[in-house]
Amino acid sequence: MRLRSFQVRLLLWGWTLLLLALAAAFYYSSTLVGTELVGETESLSWKRLDAIKWLLDEHPVFSSEQSMDQWAKTLGHKMGSRITYIKSEDGRVIADSEVPFDHISEMEDHSHRPEVLAAKSDGKGLNLRHSSTLGKDMIYVACRVNRAGGMPEGILRVAVPFSQVQSRLNSLRINFLWIFLSVLLIAAGASSYLSRNVGRSIRTFSEAARQIGEGNYSMRLRASPGGEFQPLAHSVNAMAKRIEKHIQTIEEQRGQLRAMFEGMSEGVMVLDADGRLVSYNSTLDAMISMPETAIGRTPIEVCRRYEIQKIVDRLLTEEGLERDSAEIDLMDGRVVDVSGVPYYENDGARKIILVFHDITIIRQAEKGLRDFVANASHQLRTPLTSIKGYSETLLDNPPAKFEDARAFLEIIVKNSDHMNKVISSMLALAKSEQMGKALQSTPVSGQEILSRALDDLAPLGAERGVEFSVVVPDDDPLMVMGEPDGVLHVFHNLMQNAVKYSPENGTITVEARRENGFVAFSVEDQGPGISKEHSLKVFERFYRVDENTIEGHGSAGLGLAICRRIVQNLGGEIWHDGYGEDTRGARFCFRLKTPAQS
User: Fold this and answer.
1) Domains of the chain, first to last
2) What global pTM score does this model have?
3) Are the C-beta atoms of residues 181 and 164 closer than 8 Å to each other?
């Protein structure tokens, strides 16, 4: 009895809820849906009226009322609406899309129609009524028009059939009644059959589906052997297992793609089929500072470069184009090569991937190579021309005595030494640049290398009576991260320059001190010094304060460029610390990291 009572109660409750649900649905279909359909029809009527009014305002002056009537008939036929134009002054119909022009003059006065009266007073009017002309219910909307198309001031009215809405509502009610009866009959038989054990089984399956939907793909169902739900349980378990495996694969692939996407040294921009930004990586953001609102916008809006937008437009419009590129110069002086490649989604949509490759270093290297070749050619051409000229002079007019040829031969030797010095310096610079980041820095004693340089340069200083004054901390090895031969070369070059430009019996001061994780070295002479203008350029290749390449000290202008490259490769920096344009003496400084800072 309890089982039957439970079944009866479940059946009654099920029927009650079903009846309530069907009654609510019937009320919604007959009342709310009807209201929505009427509102939708009214809204559509207003939109049609606005569109026709705009077309009328933009239309050139009609040649006659018949011309306007023909325009209204053509437009009304295309839009499926009745269009009427009524003269405000006397209510006379000028044009009507449903009435032949010959019979328009027979139409009655429309000035007292509700929608016309409302349009005259408020600018717009609406009315729902039966049309005696068309023989069916219509929705009339009207608005005031001020002498559009050369016609007198009047009222523009649009009528939309309302009978279609009524027909849809009646059809909906009839269909719903049949559904109502069918569902009741089916529910009566099904509820009595399924009310026994379906409740518990459904709750079990619902809970499993909920957990799987929330991401618990390890959830599994247990079903008794031979039970009605055993195949379904096996299917759900197999589905959960496959989903779990697919999700793991997707997560792994997504992580790999994200790592690749963010780890690329090139900037990447992904665009959809409309040419709007879908995603980009952090490299691109660092390259061109993408705005926070970049997603969903076009490339020209976020980059302000028409070259990029041109690539996108061409790839989206030209089907045969599989690749396009452009080279752009950024505001900060960098040069970026932008390459665009289309790809297709499963739905066939053509999308774009843009890759931004920073080629600034390549372009700078090319420019540096061109400048290097030009400067090297210039440096070698002058002494070579001098050698050739003096040699030809000796051959064409050989002197009778060797002493007469000595001056010519000394000039040839001097120019040959200068060419050898230029070539040696060029090879040293090329070697330092080739080493680059491959230069291995190890802890070395700056004190010891400085002592070696002083011992090497002491004879040269003695020839000119120049003394070295060394100011370094006592009992401090001055350990720095460097390479012994490279650091020694820097000391040699700076100290040789100081000896060359120091006056006789002058003093060269060499200092070393610790500062903020670095050891700074300086070499200061008492020579003519370097002006501020020259101090910014002395580290460039082939730059010389003294433009004479042979006389004087025969500088090739590469020594300081080599020093700068070596110091930079060691992770340090080198500079000229001048005292002003009117102060004598030049002071060159460089600093290297201490082992604790590397």
Assistant:
1) 32-168 (3.30.450.20), 264-358 (3.30.450.20), 367-426 (1.10.287.130), 437-597 (3.30.565.10)
2) 0.38
3) no
